[in-house]
Amino acid sequence: MKQITSEMEAIEAFLDADTYEDKYNLLGMIKEFANDHVINTLAASMDVVIPDGDVEERFDELRNVISTHRRFEVTRRR
């Protein structure tokens, strides 16, 4: 995975991630770009609303949502 150097690259990488596991792992790389716009965009891409508040708390809430999705994600092999 390439290094992420901007807010736009962070959003693109998240949207391009194939699984919730990949999205969860990306969060560690994009945390430095976390702001209300990024959190809202990432949440909207998953049809989730993260309530307004402190950016750090909102980022943690997004992480929790992705973690929950990750636990129930089923990978199918063909």
Structural write-up:
The protein has 78 residues and is mostly helical. Helices cover 63% and strands 0% of the residues. It contains 4 helices and no strands. α3 (36-45) runs parallel beside α4 (55-72). The longest helix has 18 residues, at 55-72. It starts with 6 loop residues before the first helix and ends in a 6-residue tail after the last helix.
Could you name the key traits of this structure?
78 residues, mainly alpha, 4 helices, globular
List strands and helices in order, with pairings.
Blueprint: H1 7-16, H2 20-30, H3 36-45, H4 55-72
Strand fraction: under 5%
Calculate the mean pLDDT score and round it: 92
Spatial extent as radius of gyration:
12 Å
Number of strands: 0
SS-based class: mainly alpha
Ends distance: 25 Å
Which stretches of 5+ consecutive residues score pLDDT under 50? Answer: none
Rough outline: globular
H/E series: HHHH
Put simply, the count of helices is: 4
What proportion of the residues is helical, as a percent range? Answer: 55-70%
Mind summarizing the main beta sheet? none
